[in-house]
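User: Please predict structures.

Assistant: First:
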Amino acid sequence: MRYVPAGAGIGLALCALALQGPAAAAADDSELLISPRNGAPGSTVTVSTTACGSDVTYGKGTAGGDEFHLFDDNHTGVLTGHFRIPEEAASGGHDVVVKCPPSIKITDTVAVERSRPTGGVHAGFGPAAVGENKPTLLGGAVLAVTAGGVLMMRRHRSVRR
């Protein structure tokens, strides 16, 4: 029965690796850097890209039907521009399109979130956080499995004595 501690250690290591999966899946491979990704109507959004190349110093962008310009910000090959989310913008994803010479076109999405004060304050557990606490539940499950393994090991040792 020497395999119980080894099995518990392997299970714990696999659980730790499984918890890192969602973070790796959230990585963004887009050529546009949009900050912030989620904005409220009236907020300013910054867009930058390196996809136009190091010799290009100007680009044009559109977001929600409004145009904005991107300029070289003294970092060779990085174009940066700003736009304001219109006050009348609907909630949901809105396309951001950047074009630069000779024929480069890059598209990404910015999410618009209209705030509607309903329910409780989003401060952790409770009605406002229903459905958003999956990492907490997964962490709790890992702790429960680990505690069960420790109890089994202690019980096994006490039976052998």
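Second:
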Amino acid sequence: MTNFIEAIGGLIGILAFVKGILEFVELNRISRYEKFHEMSKRFDENESIQKVCELLHDSSSSILVTKQEKEVFICFLEEIYFMIMSGIMKKEIALYTFGYYAREAMHSQRFWHDLDRGEEYYTVFHKFCRMISVFEPSKLGVKETLKY
């Protein structure tokens, strides 16, 4: 009888442990989504970033973007890079969501007009851009879906 009670107690302990792990994984997923949503909202609502996006999206636009506004854009994408590298944000989600404008910036003469491409402080931005240069969203298939 004592062995039976010990076995039941052990089984309950194992089930509680497994349930705790599953809840931890789910909370981690929710936390990553919340961070992604926060960054996505910041991207959409930040006027400096949106001015740079407009510059990059419409080559015929006469919009003037200051060096500081471009650096706000660069710093934002560097934050995304750090989130990828630390595991806070999944690479595929980050590149799919924020990569388009990084790719456009790398090839835009208007973007680099008053910036020095070789500036030491843009190293992380260049790393993010290299990451996006090999990313192909069209190759994301059913097996590799975008998950938070």
